[in-house]
C-alpha cells in the first residue's frame, strides 16, 4: 500500500507541461477540500528580469483585477511568503494592512485560504495558495491535512522547476551519495530520524549529517523538499 507521499509524487510525475502540472495540483487541492488554487514561481535567471510564472483558477474577474492593480505588492500573503516558509492562514488580522484587498477578495468568493512559500536559494522560489468560499479551516483539518498540503507545495515546486529551470539556465550540479539516497528513501516512507538510525544502525548525528548534506546538494531548505526534489529527479529510483 502506497503512502500519501508516494501518491502525490505519482500524481505529478512525469510531465513536460506546466499547465498539466497545475491541472494535477488543482485536482490534489480539490481532494484536500479546496476549490481554488494559485501557484507562482520566480526563476533566478535572467538576473536583469527574472522569469515569473503564475497559474491560478481564481475567478477571472479577480485575476484581472489582481494583475491590473498590481495587488501582489500589497498582498499580505505574498509579503509573508517572501520572508518566511511558515504557512499562513487568511484572516482579517492578516489583511489588517490591506483591508480593501481583503474585502475585494471576499467579494469574489475568496474567503478561506492557506498559503506557503518555498524559498530555497539559489534556485527557483515559489508559493502555493489553496482557497475556498466557505468553511473556515479548523485545527482538526490542519492537523489531518497540513503535512499533505506542505508536500503538495514541494511536489509542485519541483515539478515546475524540472520543466522551467533548464529553459532559463538553472540546474543542479551535484549528485547524492548512496547513503544520502538511502536516508532520503526512508524519509520518503515516513520514517523518523530515530527510526532511520535504528534501521541503518547509524547514530542520530550521522543520519542528521547525511540529511544536511542532501538538503545542501539539492539546494532546498528542508528534508521534505529534499526528498521531493530527489524523487522528481529520479535519484530515489
What would you note in describing this structure?
With 237 residues, the chain is of the alpha+beta class. It has two domains: 4-168, Transcription factor LuxR-like, autoinducer-binding domain (Beta-Lactamase); 178-232, Arc Repressor Mutant, subunit A (Orthogonal Bundle), CATH 1.10.10. Helix content is 50%, strand content 12%. It has a five-stranded antiparallel β-sheet with strand order 2-1-5-4-3, sandwiched between helices. A hairpin with a 6-residue loop joins strand 4 and strand 5 (125-132). The mean pLDDT is 86.
CATH-defined architecture of the largest domain: 2-Layer Sandwich
Helical content band: 40-55%
Sheet with most strands: 5 strands, antiparallel
| Overall average pLDDT | 86
- Strand residue content: 5-15%
Which CATH class of the largest domain is shown? Alpha Beta
CATH fold node name of the largest domain = Beta-Lactamase
What count of helical segments does DSSP give? 10
Read across the widest sheet, the strand sequence of neighbours is: 2-1-5-4-3
Shape: globular
Annotation, overall tally of beta strands = 5
What's the structural domain tally? 2
- Give the termini separation: 17 Å
Label the structural class.
alpha+beta
Element order: H for helix, E for strand: HHEEHHEHEEHHHHH
Radius of gyration of CA atoms, rounded to a whole number? 18 Å
Which regions have little confidence, pLDDT < 50, spanning 5+ residues? none
Amino acid at each position: 500500500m502506497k503512502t500519501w507521499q508516494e501518491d502525490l509524487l505519482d500524481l505529478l510525475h512525469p510531465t513536460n507541461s506546466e499547465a498539466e502540472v497545475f491541472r494535477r495540483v488543482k485536482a490534489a487541492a480539490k481532494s484536500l477540500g479546496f476549490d481554488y488554487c494559485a501557484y507562482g514561481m520566480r526563476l533566478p535567471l535572467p538576473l536583469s528580469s527574472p522569469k515569473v510564472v503564475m497559474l491560478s483558477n481564481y475567478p477571472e474577474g479577480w485575476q484581472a483585477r489582481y494583475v491590473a492593480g498590481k495587488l501582489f505588492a500589497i498582498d499580505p500573503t505574498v509579503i509573508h511568503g517572501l520572508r518566511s516558509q511558515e504557512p499562513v492562514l487568511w484572516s482579517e488580522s492578516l489583511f489588517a494592512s490591506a483591508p480593501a484587498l481583503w474585502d475585494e477578495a471576499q467579494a469574489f468568493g475568496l474567503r478561506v485560504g492557506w498559503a506557503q512559500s518555498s524559498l530555497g536559494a539559489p534556485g527557483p522560489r515559489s508559493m502555493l495558495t489553496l482557497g475556498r468560499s466557505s468553511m473556515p479551516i479548523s485545527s482538526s483539518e490542519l492537523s489531518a491535512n497540513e503535512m499533505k498540503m506542505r508536500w503538495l507545495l514541494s511536489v509542485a515546486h519541483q515539478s515546475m522547476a524540472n520543466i522551467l529551470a533548464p529553459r532559463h539556465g538553472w540546474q543542479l550540479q551535484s549528485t547524492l551519495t548512496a547513503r544520502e539516497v538511502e536516508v532520503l528513501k526512508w524519509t520518503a516512507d515516513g520514517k523518523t530520524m530515530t527510526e532511520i538510525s535504528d534501521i541503518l544502525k547509524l547514530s542520530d548525528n550521522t543520519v542528521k549529517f547525511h540529511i544536511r548534506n542532501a538538503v545542501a546538494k539539492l539546494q532546498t531548505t528542508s528534508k521534505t523538499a529534499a526528498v521531493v526534489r530527489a524523487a522528481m529527479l529520479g535519484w530515489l529510483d
